[in-house]
Design goal:
By secondary structure, the chain is an alpha+beta fold. It is built from 2 helices and 2 strands. β1 and β2 form a beta hairpin. The two termini are 31 Å apart.
Length: 70
């Protein structure tokens, strides 16, 4: 991801052995665009589902570890 410019390394001022990875400007743009797309798709996918079906679907995602069980 660093090679294609989506993330950048950032050093730790207090510990030279530690480095961090953060989104670059381009990576942040891709992330925001993907979030909008994912939100749109999830709304279209779930639109019109009965409450019981949403509950079942949610429980299945939880059992697969896709979403938090909180």
């Amino acid at each position: 991801m660093e090679k294609i410019g989506l993330v950048e390394k950032d050093s730790n001022e207090r510990d030279a052995r530690v480095s961090y990875v953060k989104l670059s400007t381009a990576g942040d743009k891709v992330y925001k665009e993907a979030s909008v797309t994912a939100d749109y798709i999830s709304k279209k996918l779930l639109d019109g589902m009965a409450a019981e079906d949403l509950e079942i679907f949610s429980n299945q995602l939880k059992s697969l570890g896709v979403i938090s069980k909180h």
